Amino acid sequence: MPLYQFRCAACGPFDRTFPMATVPDAAGCPTCASAARRQITGPRLAHGATAAMCLLDATKRSASEPAVVTGPRPGVVRNPTPTTANPLHRTLPRP
Ligand SMILES: [Zn+2]
């Protein structure tokens, strides 16, 4: 069932779920029980996000807002064996 947003004049917005065929233009406010008008909103497709949707959102968000870290996560052990035999690679700057 879709989620609709209503706005109480005294208490502000709240959400209610109704079947599409029976959605009213006004619903009772859960706080003061007065009639609250239904608001026109965009589709609320992300509500009740699944794990896959959360992963997709986090992946998209990392492109524009990458997480800044100062070191490896606790418990992560760096590779003790070097991946290169060139001794000059040891002089390269480290993070
Ligand atoms: Zn109210």
From TrEMBL:
InterPro entries cross-referenced by the UniProt entry: Regulatory_FmdB_Zinc_ribbon (IPR013429)
Disordered: annotated span: 63-95
Pfam families reported in the protein's UniProt record: Zn_ribbon_8
Matching SMART domains: CxxC_CXXC_SSSS
Source taxon at top rank: Bacteria
Span of domain Putative regulatory protein FmdB zinc ribbon: 1-41
NCBIfam families according to UniProt: CxxC_CxxC_SSSS (TIGR02605)
Name of this protein: Zinc ribbon domain-containing protein
Species, as recorded: Rhodococcus spelaei
Organism phylogeny: Bacteria, Bacillati, Actinomycetota, Actinomycetes, Mycobacteriales
